[in-house]
Design goal:
By secondary structure, the chain is of the alpha+beta class. About 30% of the residues lie in helices and about 35% in strands. The chain contains three helices and five strands. Strands 1, 2, 3, 4 and 5 form a five-stranded mixed β-sheet that branches. The two termini are about 25 Å apart.
């Protein structure tokens, strides 16, 4: 997870909205806007699994951030893998399904406004 988020090619896509995975500590919540889910896929043809999965993961995080911006939030907390609607919570890993053609990541998180 850390490798995907810290990769230079993805850094600019994940700016401005806080991302907190699993039970990671975060500032107190001032307002909760609701739970959002996303399911993203990445072309896996001719690519290493890790690369295709990281790409799908970052795309999913970016979608959660866009939802947070639209709703007036400044963070997404309790981000979990949600593949086939089975939640898996982790601060360090995410689930990715990889096939011959596509890699997919499903995420679920709570959009909030944090106290300053």
């Amino acid at each position: 997870m850390a490798d995907a988020i810290s990769a230079p090619e993805y850094q600019s896509k994940l700016q401005g909205i806080g991302l907190y995975f699993g039970n990671q500590p975060h500032p107190s919540v001032a307002r909760t806007f609701g739970i959002r889910t996303t399911s993203t896929r990445s072309n896996a043809v001719g690519k290493e699994n890790d690369f295709a999965c990281a790409r799908a993961f970052v795309s999913g995080l970016s979608r959660l951030q866009r939802a947070a911006r639209r709703m007036g939030g400044d963070a997404v907390i309790n981000i979990k893998s949600n593949f086939k609607h089975r939640e898996v919570s982790s601060e360090t890993h995410f689930q990715c399904a990889t096939g011959a053609l596509m890699s997919g990541v499903a995420l679920k998180g709570t959009v909030v406004k944090l106290e300053k």
